[in-house]
Amino acid sequence: MEGLQVDYDAGGAIETSDGAKLYYESRGPQDAPTLVFVNNFFIICPLWKNFTSRLAEKFRVVTYDLRNQGASSRAKEDLGIETHISDLGELIEKLDLGQVYLVGTSVATLIARDYAVTHPEKLRGMVSVGPMFNPFGGRRRKYIIKSWINAVEAGGVRSLFDVMYPLIYSDRTIEAGGSATYLALRERFLALNSPAQAAKNLRASLTTKDDGRKLTSITCPTLLMAGEQDFYTSGNTLHELARIIPDSRAVVVPSVGHLPYFEATEEFERLIAEFVTEIEARHAVADEPTVVLAGARG
């Protein structure tokens, strides 16, 4: 845990149309396919350096802090998913990223999903890691989120961490890490999240609905990834999502929980790299000019 890089360095900021500042970092070849990582509500942009080093060798990796998070502007009013979608769109536009691959994790998969539905022309592909949506509706997700909000309001961020920790990580990680890992992760979590900030961000996730029609209207190639021990998305649910979302495929990562990038970093990067490489090859074939031989007849 002490070896994780969390320092802000070599980043920049854009200003949104309503005056908010969004901090971002960009690594990797600038002319390569671009991966935009959308944070969940409990991590910060620099943390991705620990989980994307191999990806940044081949692709441009853009990470940023959501509004009301890390080095980005704090939200004075209540937030909604629509605000995060608008911020994401402005980031892509102002950095002139063109078509991108979106990578969303946990609650951020709601932002990525809704952006894919409303801005399909901006996406080359999408990766949903530990998706917090399913084909059956959003009641269970909302019950879970409300229980987390109750934990914050009753006992602060430490209480929230104690509720989430046994859900997020796998049996193997919790047992192998013991008290040392629990305490180290808890201290990081407490340092990054205030009670007011955590509650406001969680409430924002309740402002979008899980409508099955959203899933059928996702047109970009989609990789669905979840850990074998994910507390929310079972393997069966993941494969049902792949059946409903056009041009999608599901991958279950063995022996990990809700955060494959943390517990199986190498596999997480490999799966994304193979997905992007496959989609780029598909586009290359589609873009090849058709050669008509002289004298050929139809």
UniProtKB/TrEMBL annotation:
SUPFAM superfamilies on file: alpha/beta-Hydrolases
Cross-referenced Gene3D superfamilies: alpha/beta hydrolase (3.40.50.1820)
InterPro entries linked to this entry: AB_hydrolase_1 (IPR000073), AB_hydrolase_fold (IPR029058), AB_hydrolase_sf (IPR050266), Epox_hydrolase-like (IPR000639)
Molecular-function GO terms, alphabetical: hydrolase activity
Presence of the UniProt keyword Hydrolase in the record: yes
Highest taxon in the source lineage: Bacteria
AB hydrolase-1 domain: residues covered: 47-133
Keywords: Hydrolase
UniProt-recorded name of the protein: Alpha/beta fold hydrolase
